[in-house]
Amino acid sequence: MKALLIAGAMSLVFTLVLTPLFIRLFHRLGWGQFIRDDGPESHHAKRGTATMGGIIIILGTVVSYFTAMLIADEPIPPSPLLVLFMMVGLGIVGFIDDFLKTRNQRSLGLGGWAKVLGQVIVAGGFAWLSLQFPNEAGQTPASTHISFIRDLPLDFMRLGTVVGSVLFIIWICLIVTGTSNGVNVTDGLDGLATGSSILAIGSFVVIGFWQYNQSLPGGVNPVDLYRAYDVRDPLDLAIVAAAIVGGLIGFLWWNTPPARIFLGDTGSLGIGGALAALAVLSHTELLLVLIGGLFVIETGSVIVQRAYFKVTRGKRIFLMSPIHHHFELKGWAEVTVVVRFWIIGGLLVAAGVGSFYLEWLSSRP
């Protein structure tokens, strides 16, 4: 608990205090946002705003997590390191994309398939590593089962070691690319992705701590077996989630409308990767559909818009996708869209955490 509080507080102070210094540095380096020409006209005033703010959040998270574990004199298990690996790895992919945008002064950096390839490489490495490092009980950070709130009977390894391992890696790559791109798509208004991510990743502080609280370290009451969670390092996952949330809260102070700095793909891909990693390692992969429900809606609006456009040869369902731009073009103020979408995201997170707790209540023998 001590490490959890220290990690969250240190990360918050890090981003809250140091972000203005990074803003000045990024302006000197010429790392300003390039605005797409076909976007809402109100966004053109944001051209040149400092971007790549994800660097600050990632640095704050990494420094705060390791410092907190050092101060608390706690050992560092592999599970939180895997979350940081995912966050840093996808942050690097996003940084390359952002850097190409600022250098070439256009709204497109890496090509679509190049970006996906980078995500797949990082996700594939994460998937492989997550099945290594067994503890004394032979438990690895991730499970080869598909999970909802707990592991379901669907185990990839039933198809054989080789086929099962390949399918497991593909499954993880789908989760990671879907989640990271979902956060990336949502990052279109000041503070929207940051605030929504605070809610979603914050839920894993609660989930991880609860799973730790319901673990079975010593003598086991047979009745409790129905309620215990088969998750490795749940408290450590809560600690690293707290570090990310603290960093996001401090950053949001400077990212709210009108934003002085943007996440950039560096931040959105890194945050999305961390969110996916937390879901995989806490065995709540499918629950992520609810916890990250706002990201699902945003991504879904893009998919539906493009599909409808192709089928009808030019017609549109929304004035513009992602759907937050649709409401902007209908006349909603940017801050109104952001706050209302935060509310929707919060309700979906509450539904996810509520489902998690209700499953625990219903697991009585």
Automatic annotation (TrEMBL):
<feature type="transmembrane region" description="Helical">
    <location>
        <begin position="235"/>
        <end position="254"/>
    </location>
</feature>
<dbReference type="GO" id="GO:0008360">
    <property type="term" value="P:regulation of cell shape"/>
</dbReference>
<feature type="transmembrane region" description="Helical">
    <location>
        <begin position="261"/>
        <end position="281"/>
    </location>
</feature>
<dbReference type="InterPro" id="IPR003524">
    <property type="entry name" value="PNAcMuramoyl-5peptid_Trfase"/>
</dbReference>
<dbReference type="InterPro" id="IPR000715">
    <property type="entry name" value="Glycosyl_transferase_4"/>
</dbReference>
<keyword id="KW-1003">Cell membrane</keyword>
<dbReference type="GO" id="GO:0051992">
    <property type="term" value="F:UDP-N-acetylmuramoyl-L-alanyl-D-glutamyl-meso-2,6-diaminopimelyl-D-alanyl-D-alanine:undecaprenyl-phosphate transferase activity"/>
</dbReference>
<keyword id="KW-0812">Transmembrane</keyword>
<feature type="transmembrane region" description="Helical">
    <location>
        <begin position="80"/>
        <end position="100"/>
    </location>
</feature>
<keyword id="KW-0472">Membrane</keyword>
<keyword id="KW-0132">Cell division</keyword>
<keyword id="KW-1133">Transmembrane helix</keyword>
<comment type="similarity">
    <text>Belongs to the glycosyltransferase 4 family. MraY subfamily.</text>
</comment>
<keyword id="KW-0460">Magnesium</keyword>
<dbReference type="GO" id="GO:0051301">
    <property type="term" value="P:cell division"/>
</dbReference>
<dbReference type="Pfam" id="PF00953">
    <property type="entry name" value="Glycos_transf_4"/>
</dbReference>
<feature type="transmembrane region" description="Helical">
    <location>
        <begin position="48"/>
        <end position="68"/>
    </location>
</feature>
<keyword id="KW-0131">Cell cycle</keyword>
<feature type="transmembrane region" description="Helical">
    <location>
        <begin position="6"/>
        <end position="27"/>
    </location>
</feature>
<feature type="transmembrane region" description="Helical">
    <location>
        <begin position="337"/>
        <end position="358"/>
    </location>
</feature>
<comment type="function">
    <text>Catalyzes the initial step of the lipid cycle reactions in the biosynthesis of the cell wall peptidoglycan: transfers peptidoglycan precursor phospho-MurNAc-pentapeptide from UDP-MurNAc-pentapeptide onto the lipid carrier undecaprenyl phosphate, yielding undecaprenyl-pyrophosphoryl-MurNAc-pentapeptide, known as lipid I.</text>
</comment>
<dbReference type="GO" id="GO:0046872">
    <property type="term" value="F:metal ion binding"/>
</dbReference>
<keyword id="KW-0808">Transferase</keyword>
<keyword id="KW-0133">Cell shape</keyword>
<keyword id="KW-0961">Cell wall biogenesis/degradation</keyword>
<dbReference type="GO" id="GO:0008963">
    <property type="term" value="F:phospho-N-acetylmuramoyl-pentapeptide-transferase activity"/>
</dbReference>
<feature type="binding site">
    <location>
        <position position="265"/>
    </location>
    <ligand>
        <name>Mg(2+)</name>
    </ligand>
</feature>
<feature type="binding site">
    <location>
        <position position="184"/>
    </location>
    <ligand>
        <name>Mg(2+)</name>
    </ligand>
</feature>
<keyword id="KW-0573">Peptidoglycan synthesis</keyword>
<feature type="transmembrane region" description="Helical">
    <location>
        <begin position="112"/>
        <end position="131"/>
    </location>
</feature>
<feature type="transmembrane region" description="Helical">
    <location>
        <begin position="156"/>
        <end position="177"/>
    </location>
</feature>
<feature type="transmembrane region" description="Helical">
    <location>
        <begin position="189"/>
        <end position="212"/>
    </location>
</feature>
<keyword id="KW-0479">Metal-binding</keyword>
<dbReference type="GO" id="GO:0071555">
    <property type="term" value="P:cell wall organization"/>
</dbReference>
<feature type="transmembrane region" description="Helical">
    <location>
        <begin position="287"/>
        <end position="309"/>
    </location>
</feature>
<dbReference type="GO" id="GO:0005886">
    <property type="term" value="C:plasma membrane"/>
</dbReference>
<dbReference type="GO" id="GO:0009252">
    <property type="term" value="P:peptidoglycan biosynthetic process"/>
</dbReference>
<protein>
    <recommendedName>
        <fullName>Phospho-N-acetylmuramoyl-pentapeptide-transferase</fullName>
        <ecNumber>2.7.8.13</ecNumber>
    </recommendedName>
</protein>
<comment type="pathway">
    <text>Cell wall biogenesis; peptidoglycan biosynthesis.</text>
</comment>
<dbReference type="InterPro" id="IPR018480">
    <property type="entry name" value="PNAcMuramoyl-5peptid_Trfase_CS"/>
</dbReference>
